[in-house]
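worker-03 picked up job from queue 'complexes'. Input manifest follows; two sequence lines, order preserved.
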Amino acid sequence: MKKKLNGNSILLLITVILFVVMYAAGCVVYANKGFTHLQTFLNILINNAGLICITAGMTCVMLTGGIDISVGSVVAMDCMFLAVGMEEWGMKSPVLMLLVLLIGIVFGIVQGFCIAYLDIQPFIVTMAGMFFARGMTAVICTDQVSIVSDALFVKLSNMKLNIPFNIGAYENKKGILQIPYVRITVVIALLVVLLIFLMLKYTKFGRSIYAVGGNSQSATLMGLDVRKTKMKTYVLASFLASIGGICYCLNTMCGTTTQASGLEMDAISSAVIGGTLLTGGVGNVGGSLVGVLINGTISTLVKSHGKLVSSWANIVTAILLCFFIVLQAILAKIKESKKA
Amino acid sequence: MDSNIALTMRGICMTFPGVKALDNVDFTLKKGEIRALMGENGAGKSTLIKCLTGVNKFEAGEIHVDGIEGPIVNKDTMDAQHKGISTVYQEVNLCPNLSVAENLYIGREPLTKIGTVNRRKMNQMAAQLMKDLDLEIEVTRNLEEYSLALQQMIAIARAVDMESKVLILDEPTSSLDDNEVEKLFGMMKRLRDQGVGIIFVTHFLEQVYAVCDGITVLRNGTLVGEYTVEELPRVKLVAAMMGKDFDDLASIKPEGTTDFSKVPLEIDAKGLSHSGTIKPFDLEIHKGEVVGLTGLLGSGRSELARVIYGADRAQSGTLKVAGQDVKVKSPIDAMNLGMGLLPDDRKAEGIIGDLSVRENIILAMQAKAGIFKKIPMAKQIEIADKYIEMLQIKTASRETLIKRLSGGNQQKVILARWLATNPDFLILDEPTRGIDIGTKTEIQKLVIKLAQEGKSLIFISSEIEEMLRTCNRMAVLRDGAKVGEIDGSDMTQEGVMHAIAGGASHE
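worker-03 finished. Artifact:
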């Protein structure tokens, strides 16, 4: 059966092409700085593993037509909680990680309840959540706390998972074989993306998310429990933010009051660039992953240049965001005029 | 309960703030019966349906459904569905971003052994259902890719497939063309023969007699009576709905045709077009003339009007208004030239639900005056009251939010909005759709009165009869192009049909 490309898959296609072109350009221009090595790509994944988890949750929320701006602060709170827990309270990391996940779920239940059952604007609710989590971070501790004492956590953080069969391996100048690797966080993040992808596509809950975002009134009339779906989505987003927080912590190995600030905006921009509509109902988590990779590539490109201030990455992201939003608007117009 | 009865409602009472919406209403539906629920706007049809489906909570009364012991109270639409009561609403209530198959089965998808949605099976089931209902629809495509009419059919297919005992169709035909209406009626009759009880809410009297077995009439929230079709011929039905005898088919147009050839032109369009919607067309409208636009749904009737009004910017051609060359780039230009447009999609383009009736009436006037010249409140009240009185808008007060009004009354408010700007040229796009017959005649009379005052009008309607009664001349559209004009002795039901069908009718 021939399947016609519709506007939404065109968006995703453009995103993928953009990523490939951008990366290829990097390979050509910065070949001498190691851009062509597989490891450069893997580093983008490693650096953004936490963001990928968060963006997966953000995508689900945005699909319902909502938004969750608390996730960056939740990550900061998680990191601080983990760091202080290990260093000052002497707790074991597995217990702390479980607690972090639990906190995420509770956080999501409170936010989801306010949004779904009290009909409060998601922006306001999650803004309150954002201030609360950021505040709690400082309440736990105002200093920067580095994680050094928990053996298991340090081991997890340093663990290198080599790519099998020496794919992409090369010898450096000293003649030592460099085998590309990823961290455990990358495995977690990709697993999250896979599970969310399957969830969105093949479960009742996943399809309800799309229905709610498409037209929540219709969804109600078709007998779907819209409130429950929204509630579950916000719980999922906070839970994934906590998983993201653990990944983030494994990467930075410290807790500070200011870290991960603005991370929620990175997640939103990645999702939008990945083809998710802010109005809900359209998008998928695969696109969001590519969105994160694009953002990661931009900052790698800026870093590779060496002389540019890192703020240039923001400017390029801004331009891209504009491009995609305008593109979405144009496609929506075309779709409308076709119907009329 | 009689085993032949699908549904009974007894003594239903329901109050909205300030209004007794339903007063002790009874309703009976047999198995294998299509029953029309008739009444003017605000008679309580929608409210009764909403009580049945659990959207509204009624204060007193009982509902019994076949196969369930004792009275039932539906918590919500889902609950009603479980008890065998399905509804297809006036506006299509599906999700445009999901595939057709998903829209058919969401909430009750076939599952695989591990509890995930079995998409392949769902698509197969959907394709089979479409085939059974004789619809050519590819079920894996997104719903939004299909026309409103097909979306409506899909919505009905969904309800049908729920194995409902009671199927409620609330104005299902208002966005369908004749062919599609025929198909729908075929579907309804097949379901009736299978023993489903169907409640059919419509404003089209012909359709009632084409498909229904029984008629229940409501007026002002009370039951007028339950009849069979034979007992209640058309004239009596109208009388029952209005509570008075009625000049349904009487001519309201002054006798004799006016010769417009010596009257100056109000609108003179040459070669106007908008790519993708309407091919270049010429249109002349004299002062005091009513020109009807006719054609099938989607033939470009509304699009032609939109180009003149500047809602879609003309990409070619010239436009003269009262002899002056003008450029209409946007609706505000058109308004300043003394034009007004009553759009057909009043939900999306017309009403602003959270403003009061007065504010909605004053809106276009205020926009024309500019936002810095606020119209004095005393004047606003005067104007609002004048049109509420003139158009007999049924509202608790002039400050009632417009979203609390019934559909027909909302339509009147928008009409009042344009009349308040005192336009020289008014485009009315389906002004009587979804309006009861009494108000319809009122609006038709108003159109003729406006023309007699020297205003020019474009009148767009799907009901040919209505256009014949009001228009001096008709322009015929087909496939996005103006293909001809008819006037004088050709303006008959057959003449118009023939013109719309064009060459196709001879093939």
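worker-03 released lock.
The longest strand of chain A covers residues 145-146.
The mean pLDDT of chain A is 88.
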